[in-house]
Amino acid sequence: MARWRRDWESVMRHYQPGRDELLAAGLAAAEKAHGRRPERVLDVGGGPGTTAEAVLRRWPDAHITVLDVDPVLLALTATVLPHVRTVRADLGTAQWLAPAGGPYDVVLALMTVHYLPEDRVRDWYAEARQLLRPGGLLLVGDVMRDAPSTAPPLADTGVDPWTAWWTMLAGEPAMAPLLRERATALAGLVCAEFAAPVDWHRETAWRAGFSDVTVLHRRADHALMAFRRRWTADERQRARRGHRHLLRRPSLPRTTPSGRVGGSGGLRRCRP
C-alpha cells in the first residue's frame, strides 16, 4: 500500500507544480488565521491520504477526515492511516454534507473542484462554508488561469502518469474487488475539467459567505486561495456575550510575486 501512495504523490506532483510549497503555504496560513494549530481538518477529494499524511506531520494531534468518492483510494488511506476518518461521498450533490460531519477549523480541497461543473462549484463553496466553524478557513488549490497559459507544456514522454498508475494497480490481484466496486461507484460520473480565474473564485466565495480572500501561492496555471468563513450576526452577538476572544481575526499571509508566502476527489477522476 505504501508504494501505491508514494507513486500517487509522484503523479500529483507531475500535474501540480510546486505541490509541496503550495501545501506548506496553506498550512502556515491556517496556523496564522487560528493563532494555533487547527484541531479538525477535512480533506475534500483527499484520495489515498497523502495530503492528510503531510498535514499530520505538521499537526500530529489534528483530527482529520478524508472524503472521496473513490473506494480504492479511500482503502489506501484507511490501510496506512488507520486513525484518519474516511468518508465515501460524491460531491455532485449537497448530500455529501451529512456524512462529512463537522464543524471543522480547516476545509482543504487540492485538485478537486475542477471535477465539478461551474454551477456545482458555486454551490459547493456555500456547502463548504456550512462545515466550517465561524472564522474557519477554506483552502482551495487548483488550476486558476488568469490569462492564456505561458507555462511550458508538460514533457510528452508518451506515457500518461495518471493512466499508468491505474494500469499498474489493476495488475494487483488483491485490488480486484475494490476496482470492481470503484467501477460501480463511478459509473455515469464525468469530469467537468472546470477552470476559472482567481477573480471568479474570489467573487463566488464572497457570495457564499467568505471574506479575507487571499492568494497564498501561485505557480504556472495553479494557485492556492484561502477564504475565511464570515460570522453571522447571531454568531457574533453570542461571541460578544461569552467568548470575545473568538472575535479576534489575525490577518492572513499574502503571496509574493514568486509564489512564496510573505509577511484526489470530487467526481469521476480524470487527469488532474
UniProtKB/TrEMBL annotation:
CDD domains recorded: AdoMet_MTases
Region (Disordered): 238-272
Compositional bias ranges of the Basic residues kind: 238-248
Compositionally biased tracts (Low complexity): 249-259
GO BP annotations listed: methylation
SUPFAM superfamilies reported for this sequence: S-adenosyl-L-methionine-dependent methyltransferases
Record key words, sorted: Methyltransferase, S-adenosyl-L-methionine, Transferase
Domain Methyltransferase: 41-136
Record organism: Verrucosispora sioxanthis
Protein's UniProt name: Class I SAM-dependent methyltransferase
GO MF terms held by the record: methyltransferase activity
